[in-house]
Every structure is written in structure tokens, then in C-alpha cells.
Specification:
single chain, about 375 residues, alpha/beta, 2-enoyl-CoA Hydratase, Chain A, domain 1, six-stranded mixed sheet, four-stranded mixed sheet, 16 helices, about 45% helix
């Protein structure tokens, strides 16, 4: 009788395996790393194999990433990439409100605004975070547990697959808050959804439902998360049937209006969020990936990622330099407005800014202060 593969491994493995990760142990506030047992597609636990879950853990600030969290994500992806017993990586966030809403605007406003030399160093870390996802030797699944906005959308699109709960919203925020979506969105969006839709998402900053994102090809899969009277129901705030609107366009995923929207809000208020179906779908995909030759799978991902990587590498350094310098003007203003403005008004008066610039006003301290929204003003 032939030896089992495990018996062969026990007899022939080197006396001591060499570590290829950067650091053996690390702990970073705001990032949790868990190795969870791998499962076959039928749910059977596989002994000795795992999936690494990298979890953004800053729910009070909608899982926005601080500088220290970015470092933690880089280290976590590097460790998962090198781990011999890891099949896949699941990238997600704590709770059910947000996967990630991008960079931490408080840190941006209070430290990086007006300091381009510091933000340039921060963007080196951000770029390395995106590259650590694109270069991971394991397949990466973005488990979209809630909003995926701004930089959160960009690190999510760097992943290989995205599976979302259908109450999640997707989109960019840059031109509304003093930046541009050049942390990956302008590279990835045209590849994933085409030029016109990429322009729409990257410039208008209008959020899309999970159903619309799925329809346009941004997501691998979506599942309901709202449970009403013990039964899962699709997102009641958006159109979930393949119907045509008044212009003859497919309306799947577009917001409901009028009485239908009000009824949807009442249904949403009656239900509770349950992400069990999301977890089942993520585990099932991990199980399918497990049943492959590991090196052949890695090579397949390396090849299929090339269009993303080529676009990313072509632009990331120029983008880093521009974003740093922009901290002296529009970013400085936009991030401060978001951080300091009243909850209901966190955007500047864009008309007033454009009128001032049309008159030749320089980017002075007085101009910036005049644009920050204030309570009661």
C-alpha cells in the first residue's frame, strides 16, 4: 500500500522550515488577524489548513484606516501570503455598517492637512497596502459587510473577489471632499465596469447599491442581510427586479422613490441585520478554491491580475506625488470641512469656491477658513 501524502511529508520535510514572512509576531490596534479552519464546499473542516481573516476593526469610525492600521494590513497580507497552511485570505471589517470608508478623516484633517511631506510618506504606506493585496500569493476575497466607500472601495477592488451583503453601498468620495480617486479606483474601475460607468463613479461620487454594483460587474456575488419575521428579504430600499424605468433602462439596483421607498423604510425598520448568509457564501468560495493545485492556482491569479497591476504600477507614484501636494489646497480644505463641519453639512460651498477662484483668489489661510462649514452659519 502506498504511503499517504501526510506520511510522505512527515518523513521527507526539512528538519527546520525557513520563515519567509517579515515579522513573526505583530499586533496593531485597529486590525485583527484570525486563522480560521478551512472547510470543504460541503462545510467539512479540513485538518491543518486555514483561511486568514484580516479584519479592519475601527467600527466607531466606520472602519476607516489610520496610518498604524495601514501598516498592520501590510504585515497581515505578507504573513498570510507566506503561510504554508493558508488557502485563502478574507478581507473584511467589524460589524455590519461598513467594510471600510477609506482613510481616517480625523487623522487627515488634524495631522496631514497642510503637510504634503508627511502625506507623501503616508501614501507610500497606502501604495504598499494596495500592492500587498495585488501581490498576495493566496486568493483574496473581500467580504463586504457594509459600506465600501472612497479608499475602502479602492482596497476592496484590489481584491480578487468581492461578496457583499446587499444593504452595502459602494462609491468614491474624492471630488466631493478634496481629493481624487487615484488610490486605485481610476486604475481598476475602467477595467471592471467600462469607461463611462468608471467616469460616473469616480467623478460624481454618487453611491451605488450592492445590486447595481453586482449588475455592472463590480462584485462576484451578493446575498440578502435583512431578516424580517425570520425570513431574509432583499434590500427594500432599491429595485431588485429586472424592470425598466420610464426611459426604458434596466432599473435593477436603483433607489426606490415615493410610496415604494417609504414602504421599504418601514420594512427595513422592522428587520434586523444577519450576516450568516454572507459568511456561508464566503466560506463556500474558499472551499472551491481549496480544491485546486495550489501553485497552479497562484499562477492563474498572477496572470489574471496583470491588467490591474499594470494600471496600478503605471500611475501609483505620480498619484502619490499629486495627492501629497494637494494637501496644501483642496484636500486641506475638504478634509477639514468633513472633520470640523456640522454633521448635516460636511461639504464646502463649491459655488463660492469656484467664484472666488474665477476672480483670481489665491489659496490663502483666509480662503480656507472662509470655506469651512460652521454650525449656525
Amino acid at each position: 500500500m502506498a504511503e499517504s501524502p501526510l506520511a510522505v511529508a512527515a518523513r521527507t520535510k526539512p528538519r527546520k522550515l525557513v520563515s519567509h514572512t517579515l515579522v513573526e509576531e505583530f499586533s496593531v490596534p485597529g486590525v485583527r488577524v484570525e486563522k480560521r479552519p478551512a472547510r470543504l464546499p460541503d462545510g467539512t473542516v479540513v485538518e491543518g489548513l486555514y483561511n486568514t481573516w484580516i479584519i479592519l476593526d475601527n467600527p466607531e469610525q466606520l472602519n476607516s484606516y489610520t496610518t498604524e492600521m495601514v501598516k498592520g494590513v501590510i504585515l497581515a497580507f505578507r504573513a498570510a501570503s507566506a503561510a504554508r497552511d493558508v488557502v485563502a485570505v478574507v478581507f473584511t471589517g467589524t460589524g455590519d455598517r461598513a467594510f471600510c470608508t477609506g482613510g481616517n478623516t480625523r487623522e487627515y484633517a488634524e495631522y496631514y492637512a497642510g503637510n504634503p511631506q508627511e502625506y507623501r510618506q503616508y501614501m507610500r504606506l497606502f501604495n504598499d497596502m494596495v500592492s500587498s493585496i495585488l501581490g498576495c500569493d493566496k486568493p483574496v476575497i473581500c467580504r463586504v459587510n457594509g459600506m465600501r466607500i472612497g479608499g475602502g472601495q479602492e482596497i476592496g477592488m484590489a481584491c480578487d473577489f468581492s461578496i457583499a451583503q446587499d444593504l452595502a453601498r459602494f462609491g468614491q468620495a474624492g471630488p466631493k471632499h478634496g481629493s481624487a480617486a487615484i488610490g486605485g479606483a481610476t486604475d481598476f474601475l475602467p477595467l471592471m465596469i467600462g469607461m463611462e460607468r468608471a467616469l460616473e463613479s469616480g467623478t460624481l461620487c454618487e453611491h451605488w447599491s450592492a445590486h447595481k454594483a453586482y449588475r455592472l460587474g463590480m462584485l462576484h456575488d451578493i446575498v440578502p442581510a435583512l431578516k424580517v419575521d425570520g425570513v431574509f428579504v432583499p434590500n427594500p430600499l432599491v429595485i431588485t427586479d429586472r424592470v425598466l424605468d420610464e426611459w426604458g433602462r434596466f432599473a435593477l439596483g436603483e433607489p426606490k422613490t415615493g410610496a415604494a421607498l417609504e414602504e421599504g423604510k418601514r420594512l427595513l425598520a422592522r428587520g434586523r441585520i444577519d450576516l450568516s448568509l454572507l459568511d456561508e457564501r464566503v466560506e463556500a468560495l474558499c472551499g472551491k478554491l481549496l480544491l485546486t493545485f495550489p501553485e497552479c492556482l497562484t499562477k492563474s491569479f498572477e496572470e489574471l491580475r496583470k491588467p490591474k497591476i499594470a494600471a496600478w504600477n503605471a500611475n501609483k507614484e505620480d498619484s502619490r506625488a499629486w495627492l501629497a501636494l494637494n494637501m496644501l489646497a483642496e484636500a486641506r480644505t475638504g478634509f477639514r470641512a468633513f472633520n470640523e463641519g456640522p454633521r448635516e453639512r460636511r461639504e464646502i460651498d463649491f459655488v463660492a469656491l469656484r467664484q472666488a477662484l474665477a476672480q483670481g483668489a489665491p489659496w490663502s489661510e483666509d480662503l480656507v477658513e472662509s470655506l469651512i462649514p460652521r454650525a449656525g452659519a
